[in-house]
Amino acid sequence: MLSAFTACPGLFYTTPAQDGILSRIRIPGGILTSEQCCMIANIADNYGGGYIDVTNRANLQIREIKAAINIEVLQSLQELGLGSVNPAVDNIRNIMTSPTAGIDTQELIDTRPLVKAWDDYITAHSHFSGLSAKFSVCFDGGGKVAVKNCVNDITLAAELPNGDGKTHDVYFRLSVSRGEKGKPPQDTGILLRPKECIPVLAALADVYLQHTDPKLRRKPRLREIINGLGVEQYLQEVEQQFKVNHSDFDDKLFFSHSLLTAQKPEREKFYHLGIYPQRQTGLFYIGVVLPLGRLKSWQMRGLANLATKYGSCNLRLTPWQNVLITDIPQHKIAEVTQEITQLGLNISSTHINSALVACSGKRGCAASATETKDHALALAAYLENNITLDYPINIHFSGCVKSCAQHDPADITLIGVSLEVENKSLEGYQVYVSDGTLQKFGYQLYEYVTFTELPKLISRMLQIYQHQRLSLDESFREFVYRYGTSQLLQIFS
Ligand code: SF4
């Protein structure tokens, strides 16, 4: 096995975990072919725990690897287009884009060519191995399934500054990570034409490298460099670097400052689950719920076979740890959904598993106070028997405050706490609810609830929400906003 243990695993850079070796496969843009899926499923069976996890960057992870993956297998993966052809940069964070890029009925621009261009650029420039492994870039094409609010170091989000609806006038708004940790990147007020995006990203990366000691074991995050220099200084240096790299570029095109700042309202992130028409007439995509982002290897092969039989041999991973099958003709939808059910999966955005998130927990991470995944599954089983959801509810279990599995606030966040009681450790959770106005977890409602008490409490909270909401359209976070925490504590008790 090619291996150099780092904090952020890649195909060639694996990392030890509590439950064995963890290998992460970068999937730029989250798009996989059926053939690639089957090969990954075989690796999970032959070397790992027989399952595959989709991460919140639309990567794939194989866990519980006990024996070295054969070098020929790794090479075959590369030949199928998985893993960077340049191992030096394979550990750099996956490039994020909307899972509906190119098929979204409302998108302004297909971002897939930009994802490929940036991936090719990284691959061709080995000195980018000096970037932080967490150097993360996101392209948002302005469609219905938006990713621009996901936490990334750099986001380029499409918009029409003149509102004239002409595709050639699409610009990308540049946002960069700064300020507090865990916040989405903040608007720089700079708009870029599509052709300027890759050169500007390259300049952003070069300036980062100029301010980083290559010998440092722990590379700083881009946010830390920007906080140290100040965002104006950083962007001035980026502009200078851009001119050095592209002396022939028409510099009037670069850094066209924002003409208007009106932002689209945040899109509902669960629009990707269920059945939706594509921009290609007569074709549909189907978003499939993966419980806690996990697929058994046989389920992965099953979905890959469905994509081959009915679609275009493609699956798309989402940053919400689900998967889309695309390009399904309308008359085949019923057959596909039935076969998805036969795989033990469903497509409903209001199923409790649709927005249930958990980090790897005690079994996979030494920092975890609790068995997050087991607890999440037990909670889901309890809720399935006690309540019927009719609006997506995002519940996030985190083994510690680091909150690796989800960076934005969930409707309900549960942070693991372990208490020593009579020489026994008792696993429980801090309970937070969010109205969407605060970053991180929202408002703490309960300081400590044992796991035994938790399912009843969450069920009661959701039942009260369903009975007391203003209408079927009132979301959980709107309900939280309307009541405020002190009143919520009263009505939930
Ligand atoms: S959130 Fe904490 S416990 Fe969970 S995986 Fe991350 S570091 Fe580990």
Task: Provide a descriptive summary of the structure in words.
The protein is of the alpha+beta class. It has 4 domains: 15-85, Sulfite Reductase Hemoprotein,Domain 2 (Sulfite Reductase Hemoprotein, domain 2), CATH 3.90.480.10; 108-141 and 150-257, Sulfite Reductase Hemoprotein, domain 1; 269-350, Alpha-Beta Plaits; 354-492, Sulfite Reductase Hemoprotein, domain 1 (2-Layer Sandwich). It is 30% helix and 22% strand. It contains 13 helices and 21 strands. It has helices spanning 34-47, 71-79, 112-124, 194-210, 222-229, 231-245, 297-310, 333-342, 361-364, 372-386, 454-468, 476-483, 485-492, and strands at residues 15-17, 20-25, 31-33, 51-54, 60-65, 96-97, 137-140, 154-159, 171-176, 186-192, 256-257, 274-277, 283-288, 294-296, 314-317, 323-329, 356-358, 395-398, 412-421, 424-433, 443-450. It has a 6-stranded mixed β-sheet. It has a 5-stranded antiparallel β-sheet with strand order 1-2-5-4-14. Strands 3-15-16-13-12 form a 5-stranded antiparallel β-sheet. Helix 1 (34-47) runs antiparallel to helix 7 (297-310), helix 3 (112-124) runs parallel beside helix 4 and helix 4 packs across helix 6 (231-245). Iron/sulfur cluster binds at residues 359-360, 365, 367-368, 398-400, 402-404. Iron/sulfur cluster (SF4) binds at residues 359-360, 365, 367-368, 398-400, 402-404.
